[in-house]
Design a protein that fits this description.
Helix content is about 95%, strand content about 0%. The chain is mostly helical.
Length: about 120
């Protein structure tokens, strides 16, 4: 019987030691999981900031692209206007010279006493 009691106490102490080791392992695992969860949360927070920065940059690029396209269209419009004016100015000058020459010739042909002069 004494052997049985000793055996029972040994087994009980062994079971207590095993349960303490298991509890210690579980506590260490819980700490490790908690640490990983904090790291995941920090990474998620950082990812959210990076995503926000990317969205902001995308908006800035889009806005810059729109401004650039608007400026390109304005330059194209100005070039068309300048091309039209560049073609019209010599034509208007030529017409003015021709009209002045015709007026001069008409005045010479009619004479100095004419009411047109």
């Amino acid at each position: 019987m004494q052997f049985t009691v000793v055996m029972f106490l040994s087994l009980t102490l062994l079971a207590v030691a095993i349960s303490h080791e298991a509890a210690d392992r579980q506590a260490a695992q819980n700490l490790e999981i908690s640490k990983h969860n904090r790291e995941v949360a920090a990474a998620h927070h950082e990812l959210a900031h990076v995503h926000q920065d990317v969205q902001s940059e995308r908006h800035n690029l889009s806005s810059g692209w729109n401004d650039l396209e608007s400026e390109r269209r304005q330059i194209a419009h100005d070039r068309r206007t300048q091309s039209l004016l560049a073609a019209l100015v010599p034509m208007v000058g030529t017409i003015a010279v021709v009209v002045a020459a015709l007026y001069f010739l008409l005045c010479r042909a009619i004479g100095p006493g004419s009411p047109l002069v």
